[in-house]
């Protein structure tokens, strides 16, 4: 159980983060209780060694090693510690803090931003030592009175992102080399921008290839050809998988009724949602929620 002191400290910590846009701290000692699975308004990079389970969106990741974990504010997550002790560092920052055109690009191409890319990067001893040095540098700079410390802290974050990408390059990264890849990139960005679904009163607006083509001002056949050529999967499959992934997260981590979830995802009737979910995942929403799959 989390006592009132822990809750007060956590609220103060989050409030301070919102005011300044950046926080870094050391993780040590006995594991703290896990935080509720939910969406937050800041990015987080954690360097940690320990035995734990990470619930990230609809994905469950078991780790017993030294690794980097990237938390995106758009994807709910929970970390459950299974070791008696843990050690490492955590860095939290807002998108506004990590400003600048070039930095925004590296942020968007990093594991912090990409949906469907593993949020965990395993580290060997040499990699862990290098990244530990960066976190320790951030701790030192954050406590200092150096006039340009924010810029130096941003540089450290950027180095961590580059190191993560060099260790674990993104698979099938979409590059804007021609018109087809550009329209595919725009489609993927437009698709992801609709998530997360935070309330039942604002259902998805774009649910079909025709919807996306109209918004992007291209013919639906051209959109389908481009997406299939660049990614190897049809437009409809990308849409179905993303909607199903959000449905899984809502079924697992909210107390919304199946009817409310159906409506929030753009389905007029729960029956339509049930059939859709079963076709894509092989399970009914109710059986998935209760774990009977």
TrEMBL record:
Keyword annotations from UniProtKB, A to Z: DNA-binding, Transcription, Transcription regulation
RNA-binding as UniProt keyword: no
An MF annotation (GO) of this entry: sequence-specific DNA binding
Domain HTH araC/xylS-type: 181-291
TM regions (residue ranges): none
Protein name: AraC-type DNA-binding protein
Species of provenance: Chitinophaga ginsengisegetis
């Amino acid at each position: 159980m989390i006592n009132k002191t822990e809750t007060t400290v956590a609220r103060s910590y989050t409030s301070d983060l919102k005011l300044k846009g950046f926080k870094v701290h050391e993780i040590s000692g006995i594991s703290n209780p896990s935080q509720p699975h939910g969406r937050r308004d800041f990015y987080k990079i954690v360097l940690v060694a320990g035995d734990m389970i990470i619930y990230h969106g609809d994905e469950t990741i078991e780790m017993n090693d030294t690794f980097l974990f990237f938390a995106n504010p758009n994807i709910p997550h929970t970390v459950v510690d299974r070791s008696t002790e843990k050690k490492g560092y955590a860095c939290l920052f807002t998108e506004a803090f990590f400003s600048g055109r070039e930095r925004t690009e590296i942020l968007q191409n990093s594991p912090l931003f990409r949906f469907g890319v593993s949020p965990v990067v395993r580290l060997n001893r040499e990699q862990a030592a290098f990244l530990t040095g960066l976190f320790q540098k951030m701790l030192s700079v954050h406590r200092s009175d150096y006039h340009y410390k924010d810029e130096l802290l941003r540089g450290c974050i950027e180095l961590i992102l580059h190191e993560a990408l060099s260790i674990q390059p993104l698979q099938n990264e979409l590059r804007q080399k021609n018109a087809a890849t550009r329209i595919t990139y725009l489609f993927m960005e437009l698709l992801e921008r609709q998530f997360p679904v935070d309330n039942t009163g604002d259902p998805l607006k774009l649910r079909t290839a025709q919807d996306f083509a109209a918004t992007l001002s291209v013919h639906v056949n051209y959109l389908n050809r481009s997406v299939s050529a660049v990614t190897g999967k049809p437009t409809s499959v990308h849409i179905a998988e993303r909607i199903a992934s959000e449905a899984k997260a809502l079924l697992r981590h909210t107390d919304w009724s199946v009817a409310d979830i159906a409506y929030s995802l753009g389905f007029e009737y729960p029956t339509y949602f049930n059939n859709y979910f079963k076709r894509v995942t092989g399970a009914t929403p109710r059986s998935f929620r209760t774990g009977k799959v």
